[in-house]
Design brief:
Helix content: 25-40%
Number of helices: 6
Radius of gyration: 21 Å
Oligomer: single chain
Structural class: alpha+beta
Distance between the termini: 45 Å
Shape: globular
Strand content: 15-25%
Order of helices and strands: HHHEEEHEEHH
Largest sheet: 5 strands, mixed
């Protein structure tokens, strides 16, 4: 799609991740968060099917309604309570009012990339790589980029501080992997619960430079904890890393399987 959003059947996006949306849910917060993420990743933000020329927010609410109904058919009405569904509908509808500064990005002429994957080296000379999936990347018509992460919770200083490094990692990954000047990127935490609130994360050059140093040191620490090849060869029958997803890269472990 020219605007960066694939054409998918309603509800299809729920099964793109490693954790498919399925019930029953024992925790209301988990149910609401899972449903909200699944709906928002497939909403038609680009207005490709707005044949009736509805106002932008009204059209998005209509699109979200279709996604909700499709998802409920997939997961089953009995697996998630009507109260949970109603709460998510209200919170998503509130989000579509787009509090500042998101109004500058959420426009039909922007490009929307939900579930955007990143993969990049944690530092020069290391064999540690970082990968992740960004809830939504928005590119405005003038080239400015917003990195958005949804949280189904209430805004608080403690919660925002906890998630700041996640957003910095996302922005660093986009800048490195896609060659985008960080000065064109802004990052936002969107707390959906009980009326959407937006908190911007500092991803200035200085902030990301400090985070990149931290990431490189962390990668070095990870590598320093791994056993040497000689150690693996001597203890291959006791290898502690047989469940490692990178086992196929370990020459010593080949003989231990």
């Amino acid at each position: 799609n020219a605007r960066g959003q694939d054409a998918r059947a309603p509800g299809e996006g729920a099964f793109r991740g490693t954790q498919p949306l399925s019930g029953p849910f024992d925790d209301d917060a988990l149910a609401k968060g899972s449903l909200a993420h699944a709906i928002l990743q497939d909403v038609d933000f680009s207005c490709r099917f707005n044949d009736n020329d509805l106002p932008y927010a009204d059209y998005l609410r209509k699109s979200a309604g279709k996604e909700t109904e499709a998802l409920l058919k997939i997961i089953g009405d009995e697996d998630i309570s009507p109260e949970c569904v109603a709460a998510v509908r209200r919170d998503i509808s509130s989000f579509f009012n787009f509090p500042d500064p998101l109004k500058d990005y959420f426009r039909p002429d922007s490009s929307f990339m939900p579930e955007h994957k990143i993969y990049f080296s944690a530092g020069a000379g290391t064999e540690v790589y970082v990968d992740g999936v960004i809830d939504l990347v928005v590119m405005a018509a003038d080239g400015r980029i917003a990195v958005i992460d949804y949280k189904y919770g209430r805004n608080s200083r403690d919660k925002a501080s906890f998630y700041e490094d996640q957003l910095k990692m996302y922005c660093l990954g986009i800048s490195k992997a896609e060659g985008i000047d960080i000065s064109n990127i802004r990052a936002f935490l969107v707390f959906l619960r009980d009326g959407a609130e937006v908190r911007e994360v500092d991803v200035s050059n200085d902030s990301l430079a400090s985070f990149e140093d931290y990431l490189e040191k962390t990668a070095a620490d990870i590598l320093s904890t791994l056993p040497s090849e000689d150690s693996c060869q001597q203890n291959r029958e006791l290898c502690r890393y047989l469940s490692c997803p990178y086992l196929d890269r370990c020459s010593a472990a080949d003989e231990s399987v």
